[in-house]
Design brief:
mainly alpha, single chain, Membrane-bound Lytic Murein Transglycosylase D, Chain A
């Protein structure tokens, strides 16, 4: 039992917090930008999932993007 407690204490003492997926990227919207174009340029594969993730992260609703808006692009 003592050996198990010692092993647990050792694991807890050497554990480090995870950095997760990393820092988000910021993107400054330019005139003519669309979510689809940003998603296609920034993410691999089908842009539909990326469009949804960007919209959700930034609280976007229907309508065109406004130039000068900073979008946070999740990893």
């Amino acid at each position: 039992m003592l050996l198990v407690l010692l092993a647990i204490a050792l694991v807890l003492a050497t554990a480090r917090p995870s950095r997760g997926a990393g820092a988000e990227t910021r993107y400054l919207v330019r005139s003519g930008d669309t979510l689809w174009a940003i998603a296609a340029a920034q993410y691999a594969g089908d842009p539909r999932k990326a469009v949804w993730r960007i919209s959700e992260r930034n609280g976007l609703r229907d309508g065109p993007l406004q130039p000068g808006t900073v979008l946070y692009l999740p990893q």
